[in-house]
Write a structure and sequence with these properties.
It is a single chain. This protein is mainly beta. It has a single domain (6-118), classed as Lipocalin (Beta Barrel), CATH 2.40.128. The chain contains one helix and eight strands, in the order αββββββββ. It has one helix at residues 6-21; strands at residues 29-39, 45-53, 56-58, 65-69, 74-81, 84-93, 96-105, 108-118. The protein has an eight-stranded antiparallel beta barrel with strand order 1-2-3-4-5-6-7-8. Strand 2 (45-53) and strand 3 (56-58) form a beta hairpin. The longest helix has 16 residues, at 6-21. The N and C termini lie far apart (53 Å).
């Protein structure tokens, strides 16, 4: 019996995660986010609002923003604005959430935590 290749396994995992992410989500709605820098020379804090719809996280003014919330509340997101990039993971719990992020602004690397509050 042939062993499945690594790319086939990765594709199956991606498809499974995508199906879960697009299911109706208990986390749908507007969320206020605050990102705090703990290491690096990025701005000390960033804040903005996002919308979750069917588990997909969007922001109306950020074209290069991707995010997904699983039924379990697990969050994965990334954003690119000019020379700045950040990605993070975490978890939503009912009306709040928290997690970690890593990124870069120009040549500087930064990291910290984020918090979320449902509007």
């Amino acid at each position: 019996m042939k062993t499945p290749s690594l790319w086939m396994i990765a594709a199956a995992c991606f498809i499974a995660q995508t199906s879960v992410a697009h299911a109706r989500s208990a986390y749908d709605g507007s969320w206020d986010l605050v990102f705090v820098t703990q290491t690096g020379t990025c701005d000390p804090a960033y804040s903005f609002a996002v919308n979750v719809s069917d588990g997909v996280v969007t922001h109306p003014n950020l074209v290069k923003f991707k995010g997904y919330v699983a039924k379990s509340g697990s969050v994965h997101a990334s954003v690119t604005v000019h020379d700045k990039f950040a990605s993070g993971t975490g978890k939503l719990f009912g009306t709040s959430g928290r997690g970690r992020w890593n990124g870069r602004a120009g040549g500087a690397r930064c990291s910290g935590y984020w918090t979320a509050q449902r509007n």
